[in-house]
Amino acid sequence: MSRIEPWWRTAAVYQVYIRSFKDGDGDGTGDIAGLRSRLPYLGDLGVDALWINPWYVSPLLDGGYDVADYRDIDPRFGSVQSATEFIAEAKRHGIKVLVDLVPNHTSWDHQWFQAALAAGPGSPERDRYHFLPGSGPGGAEPPNDWRAVFGGSAWRRVPDGEWYLHLFDISQPDLNWEHPEVRLEFEDILRFWLDRGAAGFRVDVAHSLVKAPGYPDTGDKANEDRLLTAEGESQHPFWDRPGIHAIVRGWRSVLDGYPDVMMVAEAWVANQDRLAAYLRPDEYHQAFDFEFLEAAWGAESMRSAIEESLASTRPVNSIPTWVLSNHDVIRHATRYGLPQGVDAKQWLLDGDRSLLDSALGNRRARAAALLLMALPGSMYVYQGEELGLPEATELPLDVLDDPTWVRSNHTVKGRDGCRVPIPWTIDGLSAGFGSGPSWLPQPDGWSAMSVEAQAGVEESMLELYRAGLALRKEVFVGDLALEWIPSPADAIEFRRGSGVRCVVNLGTEPLSVNGEVLLASEPLADGSLPGNAAVWLR
Ligand code: GLC
Asked: What's the gap in Å between 223 CA and the centre of ligand 1?
């Protein structure tokens, strides 16, 4: 029997990287006006909600994850008024809006950090961050051996000699979550956006926040970011600390005062059991399943990622959150086109370009979309994946904007290639993204993948997403049951509560299937599903 689920348990959420979605004022950067003009498109696509990447006042040194004011919108994107109107208008299209909460760090432009710099060592202003004396003669060395995610030491010295912690870019000082004012401030920020109609939050770096007392060195474990004890508890000095959960429960009690709202965690933790701890009934509603995102193309790896996610969420009465791409990873149409065993990040930097089979990547992306939509739980679509956009791999080095490129001393290329502005039309300077050039250049041929080029074309990726999302509502969200069906080694098959089956052929040999075809990623020939394809059957 089907039961009424809270909306988020089965939602299809569309991720909007606002800088690159649609430019409404011709300055080359996406904005709220542009996004608003595309609400009909998003309504037609059939998504239930949007997650908007940070749109707050920011120097944009990490694409907006360096927030200078959590209660104001950057003028390049709009204003609090236009954001509030946008949220209300989206609601009229049946679309909810999630905003991005960035609690681990602020921008160095934030007034708290500016006050901390001005007030000097030992001041209460410095207590809101992690300021420490250095080590070694004259305190000239960083306080410990912690490394920043983007490269280099996680500490930076200020002119008076103290060092501050930044687990990401130098412009992103980490907040001290032991400080009561920090906790109160963020509860208030939650209320600020909920009062303006937000349906909830995507929480950035949800596995950080708390740091081990005494800031112990990581020593020879410096590169192991997922240290666990024999009992499976995290023993890393700054990732996945036990103290995180009390903070999350505080946020949850704020959210529980509003109807129908939720929060989703971005937590890169050691395994799905660790992730389930964030999904306990008084914590997050959702947490992205990155094991599934990272699973190599293959029946074994994908099935086990799915099984583990279902198994680990069950004891906490939660449900998985499936995702294939986001603004931090190489787009899956490209990942799936690389041979098994090739490290995509390394390949992006200096790999042999002839290894990439784009047609195969696209074909697998179509199949993966049908798998994603058929799974029980919620799912996220990263803008442009519905157009089959690949990673832009050949951006000129002088346009790269991701701080990773500089901080890693040019050893990691960074995430710009998945952040290139969306092509809307076949003609136009930036393929309809804006009226002039876009902040990141679009590769040649981008307009052939535009919305205009695909709309109404039956075999396009866009029409596959439209049909899939519509059908998903009918046959996959009413009943969350999933039953595995024994299948050949290279295939995955399961039946959902409605009786509809999903078969994915991850191998190359055709697979014979039976039943009425509801939707297929490739045409079937004589009742057989070609390799690298998926089908929904009744
Ligand atoms: C998250 C964001 C990423 C950002 C980082 C620091 O991982 O998704 O884009 O750079 O946090 O805020």
From this structure: 19
